[in-house]
Amino acid sequence: MAEMIVMGQGKPFLARATILRDSLTRRYEQLHVGSGMAACSRFEQPELPAANSHFDYQRWLHVRGVVSTTFISDEDWDPARVSNASLSRLWRVRLRLLKFRQQAVSSLRDAGLGGQEYAVVAAMAFGDKSAIAKNTRETYSVSGASHVLALSGLHLSIIYMLLTFIFVRLRWLRTGLFFTIPAIWLFSLMVGLSPSVTRAATMLTVCAFVALLGRKLISLNTLSLAAIIMLVANPLALWDVGFQLSFTAVLGILLFHDTLMNWLGNPKQIVLAWLVETVAVSLSAQILTAPLVAFYFGRFPTYFLITNLIAIPIVTIILYVAAFYFLMIGCGVLFGVSLSVLQSIVVQILERLSFMLNFSLDHIASWPCSSIEEISLNKLQVVIIYVLIAVVAALYILLKKYWKQQPHDE
């Protein structure tokens, strides 16, 4: 299954194609990002959602610009050279970046990384989820770690911090920002411009320009501006599940994080401070995302706190190690130096880390009552839950303000 750009007599459009795999000739192995084909098939409207499902597949495709679906038999297509002259400049740039992503991901496999360890690293580092098996997806979903497979602010923040660090060392901070922001957007284009990535890239762009202007950064305003920009560019994004989960997670952190930190305390010991911070971030994000997860997927992972305490540090290390690996490849190409031995060591580290992550999450997913299943909520119930959350939060603020105004005995 893949998305393809259909170019015929009219304007090019996106279609989601299901291509039959022929196990004898295995011609499907010739197809990669940017491959051309001449095919004969019938285009159809995307299927409507099932009666018992809240996930609107048709709308999900439309948000991504996909207007049709089609099935192509193994006998009804042939490789062909297709000119991309009729495509927009943005699409041509995006295709080049997607080809580069495929080369980068393939280099991991060529270096010896395989199995679901390779699949997880490819998904985390480049947003390529094509190699993730169904049982691995289920494990991450049941354990409450699906968010680590989706590129988000963590990934872009690492790129932003690395580039900023380099330019700060060179004392080119202002000039460096004009290089860093395009680099972030190029990376976002390369990994597919998912809602979470677009939100993070937009927020980082706003933060960069606010820093250049010497203005005080207000995160809630930045989040709101990012949402407005994305909705102006694509109003249908409002109905995208990824858009909703990404913005509600960050909104929950902005609204509830400080309060939870006050309740949990602020220990000075480094490990305890990190533990409390991780718990506060996980809980604050879960407050606003849990109703949507239950509504769309009918599931709630009960051990999400334990999952995040294990997964977040491992994922962070994987991302830094992966960034170092591709930096070595770039330096080797640029300076003509062979770093194969060091690259092999780094790949082994990635393999151990991803194996450790998969093993841990698989173990958590096997625990009793690891996930509450078959949750059935309708839209009205979801709205009521959010209203109750807002009412409780407002009452807490009023009571806290009232308590401060009251005289207390010394």
What does this structure look like?
This protein is of the alpha+beta class and 410 residues long. 64% of the residues lie in helices and 8% in strands. The chain contains 14 helices and eight strands. The chain has helices spanning 57-63, 89-110, 115-126, 134-143, 146-149, 153-169, 173-190, 195-213, 219-233, 241-264, 270-297, 304-335, 340-365, 379-405; strands at residues 2-6, 13-19, 37-39, 43-44, 66-72, 77-79, 299-301, 371-373. A four-stranded mixed sheet has the order 1-2-5-4. Strand 1 (2-6) and strand 2 (13-19) form a beta hairpin. Helix 3 crosses helix 13 and helix 4 crosses helix 13 (340-365). The model has no long low-confidence stretch (mean pLDDT 85).
Task: Record the SSE blueprint.
Layout: E1 2-6, E2 13-19, E3 37-39, E4 43-44, H1 57-63, E5 66-72, E6 77-79, H2 89-110, H3 115-126, H4 134-143, H5 146-149, H6 153-169, H7 173-190, H8 195-213, H9 219-233, H10 241-264, H11 270-297, E7 299-301, H12 304-335, H13 340-365, E8 371-373, H14 379-405
Helix pairs in contact: 2-7, 3-13, 4-13, 6-7, 6-8, 6-12, 7-8, 8-9, 9-10, 10-11, 11-12, 11-14, 12-13
Question: Can you give me a brief rundown of this structure?
Answer:
With 410 residues, this protein is α+β, with helices and mostly antiparallel strands.
Proportion in helices: 55-70%
Uncertain segments are: none
- How many beta-strand runs? 8
Radius of gyration: 23 Å
The count of helical stretches stands at 14
Shape annotation: globular
How would you characterize the largest beta sheet? Answer: 4 strands, mixed
If you average the pLDDT, what whole number results? 85
As a percent range, the share of strand residues is: 5-15%
Q: How far apart are the first and last residues' alpha carbons, in Å?
A: 70 Å
- Oligomerization: single chain
What strand line-up does the widest sheet have?
1-2-5-4
Strand-pairing-aware structural class: alpha+beta
- The succession of helices and strands, N to C, reads EEEEHEEHHHHHHHHHHEHHEH
